[in-house]
Amino acid sequence: MIARLHFEEEKRQVMEQVLSMGTRVEEDLRKAISAFKDKNTALAEEVKADDGVINGYQASIEDSCARLIATQQPVAQDMRWLIATIKIVDELERVGDHAVHLAKAAIKLEKESHIKPLETLEKMADVGCEMIHLAVQAYMNLDTEQARKAAAMDDRIDGYHKELVSALLDYTQKHPDKVAQGTKIIQTSGYMERLGDHVTNICELIVYCVQGIHVELNE
For residue range 55-114, what is the model confidence (pLDDT) as tens digits? Predict the structure, then answer.
């Protein structure tokens, strides 16, 4: 009984750390969007500097999970939760990397006049923020329906990505002087598209944690 209480307390602390990490990643992505929209390089540099903090969260959570596996000998759902949590924080760290990519793009394009397709990139990042928020809440509540709802939003990001690439190819054909900027934006859009995939992976892990089944969401 005492061992079980200890496990539950450790589990609560780990989940709070995941919440803090997820919140920080979401905040960084929102900062990156603002930096991009407003050409705010100082804010973009904050996002880049925060990458080390995100990595620190990941290391701390993974260490806590490893300690629980070694000392508590968890079985069944507890083991699934530990495995899922380790994988989820890895996915969150990758989402944080994509926020950094967006921040770097903001810095690189700071002196250039923004072309219209950039509005679509901003929409992609906004949806990404919503997905992160919902997915983290789904993890905290172990809510598979909320996880599926978050994953379903990835279709919107994919649609925006295709729309943006098509618009930019058309735009750069008519404005050859904008090819370099267009190429950078397409690359950054690819990062946002992959961000949605990482959040979808988190949602699949939540389903695995709760139901013990492997699912492919948004095939």
Answer: 999 999 999 999 999 988 888 889 999 999 999 999 999 999 999 999 999 898 888 777
| CATH number where 165 lies | 1.20.58.220
105 neighbors 185 (Cβ within 8 angstroms): yes
C-alpha 90, offset from chain centre: 10
Mean pLDDT of 162-176: 90
Domain total in the chain:
1
User: Looking at the domain assignment, is residue 219 inside a domain?
Assistant: no
Q: Is residue 6 part of a domain?
A: yes
Domain that holds residue 131: 2-211
Residue 71's H or E segment, with its range, is helix 51-72
Model pTM score:
0.94
- C-alpha to C-alpha distance for 186 and 70, rounded to whole angstroms: 45
